[in-house]
Amino acid sequence: MSSDKIEILYRNFGILADAKDKISEHVAEYADIIGAVKGSVNDKKLASQFITRFFKHFPSLMDQAIEALFDLCEDEDVSVRKQAIKDLPSLCKENNEYTPKVTDILGQLLQTNDTTELSVVQSSIMTLCKNDIKGALKGMFNLIEISNGPVREKCLRFLVPKIKMLGRDIMTKEIEEYTIDQCKKILRNVTGDEFMQIMDLLAWSRLSQSLAGQKELMEIIKHHAELSKSFDPSNPEDVDRSIYCSLHCVPYLCSAIPSTPFVSYLCEQVLPKLDQIPETKDEAGGLDNQLEALKLLAELSPFYVVHEDTPQHITSIVDCLFVRKQAIKDLPSLCKENNEYTPKVTDILGQLLQTNDTTELSVVQSSIMTLCKNDIKGSMNYKPHSDFSLRKV
């Protein structure tokens, strides 16, 4: 039975291929090809190829043909799914109006756990991007906006690096402006990870290359940071947000874009509660959040603009100095059984040598000497940071 169906498929294919200018008269044959998606595995794979081959010639059956291919993308046989996924972009080659819809379906398929299938999905999306970038982005951004959970996460993780790979010949000024507008819409409701991915894309865009654009990025970061909100050191979201928002604003700081809102927040909200922040380490085995907050304050401070309530901020910093000095004393202990941390910790202490506080300087020097005694090779192998004041303008 299956061989008969395949024979019929090839016969219909031959009729359509030979019809040339009269191909549109053979609606019945094309409809039979679409119907073959209900057949065997081989029937389905052939039908997928033939549907896309003659798609543009039968406007009245286009919606039905697309739905048939979408069904194949959900088939239980992975070889059928891969064939349909590979063929989908061909539908849009001369019919760009379908690009957003097709990209939407492919975006949902990024959830697959089959690595070979995932590769085909990604390749098909990239083909759509190269053929019709505006339509492809529209489909992806619409899917991201209305989705949550794994679909949204997979789409963002795929889209952000791929957009940067496309190059400026495809990502024209018009397309970049569209992308920036869509990113702003998504930023209205994002998780911390999503925020960092979107900001990474915006930092790559033309928006980061002008002072006006950098100011706009700073406003976006300030809005997400919720600087008017009270800081809860026991809430991981509050801790993470205060750190990654402060971190993202650093590249844009200059005389025209001061760090005042973030320094004020750190001094008024975070530093007084610094010792209440759990001393958890990040996945990469880096330093804890207490030290990260202090490092960020050091980076932000050169761009702080003094205003009338400066004394209050200074008081907050002074109140925190004991905690800071204790943290500096504790730094070498991180390296006692983990020598790989030594260069990084030495780097941090090297930065702290710039302090004007003589008692703190003594503590820093003592900690550096402890590191040298414990691991002289590691302590001499660090790479000093460049001057904090060298920022993008």
From TrEMBL:
Pfam family name, one: API5
GO terms for biological process, alphabetical: apoptotic process; negative regulation of apoptotic process
Gene Ontology CC, one term: nucleus
Keyword hit for Transmembrane helix: no
This protein's UniProt keywords: Apoptosis
InterPro entries noted in UniProt: API5, ARM-like, ARM-type_fold
Gene3D superfamilies, alphabetized: Leucine-rich Repeat Variant
Gene Ontology MF terms in the entry: RNA binding
PANTHER family linked to this entry: APOPTOSIS INHIBITOR 5, APOPTOSIS INHIBITOR 5-RELATED
Entry's family note: Belongs to the API5 family.
Protein name: Apoptosis inhibitor 5-like
The species this protein was found in: Diaphorina citri (Asian citrus psyllid)
